[in-house]
Every structure is written in structure tokens, then in C-alpha cells.
Amino acid sequence: METAVNQYLPSDYLPILIQFAAALGFVVFALVATHMLGPKRTSAVKGAAFESGIESVGDARTPISYKYFMTAILFVLFDVEIIFMYPWAVNFKEFGMTFFVPMLIFLSVLLAGFYYELKKGILK
């Protein structure tokens, strides 16, 4: 009867489970201890909204243009694009034409989305 060389037993994962339990226990202990031992002083001044030493005026729930959020999403989109392109560019010689065509397809989809955004006037 042959035995598998790379077979893992459940007991092999015990150190990982112990470390996870210890980390989780420490976090729970720290949160409970600071809540129980920390000072509990409340006042109107402490609970007031404060930003840069300027008194708050008006309602904080004013409507914001959706273009602000679209610009933020565009930034994240093109930031993620660089995350995909950098390893490809570093290993371009090794990959050769194997990954060149998929990268062209990826870039064409991105450029189509960018063209759509320009036509919608999101960046104005």
C-alpha cells in the first residue's frame, strides 16, 4: 500500500488555528478592556461637531454632484489598470506575443469606457 507524501492532516493546521485564536482573543480583550477601564465623560462640547477650529454651520447632508463620485470612480479604475499593466510590462520579453493580444483587448475595453466618459462629459 502506497502512502501520499504531500498529504496534509487536520493536525497540521493546529498551529495556525492557535495563532488565529490568540490574535482574535487579544483584539477582543483590548477592546473590552479599554471600554471598561477608559474614562466616560460626556458633555455638550465633547459631543459637538468640530472641524479645523471652525464652528459647523448648516446641514451636513447637502447634495453633492454625482460627477464628483464619477471622477473618484474613474481614478480608482485607472489606478487598478496600472496594477494589471505593470507586471505585464515588466515581463513583456518573457511573455512575448502570448499576452500581448489579451492586453490589447484589455486596453481597448478601457479606452472604449474612457471615450464613453468623455462623450458623457464626466471630466468637464
Task: Walk me through what this model shows.
Keywords: Cell membrane, Membrane, NAD, Quinone, Translocase, Transmembrane, Transmembrane helix, Transport. InterPro entries: NADH_UbQ/plastoQ_OxRdtase_su3, NDAH_ubi_oxred_su3_sf. The protein is mostly helical. It is 63% helix and 0% strand. The chain has helices at residues 14-37, 44-47, 66-90, 92-95, 100-120. The protein is flat. The mean pLDDT is 83.
The number of distinct helices, counting runs of at least 4 residues, comes to 5
Helix % is 55-70%
Strand content: under 5%
Distance between the termini: 73 Å
Total E-strand runs: 0
Quaternary class: single chain
In terms of per-residue confidence, which ranges show pLDDT below 50 for 5 or more consecutive residues? none
Give the overall silhouette. flat
**Mean of pLDDT:** 83
Class of secondary structure makeup:
mainly alpha
- Largest β sheet strand count, sense and barrel closure: none
What is the string of SSEs from the N terminus onward? HHHHH
Radius of gyration: 27 Å
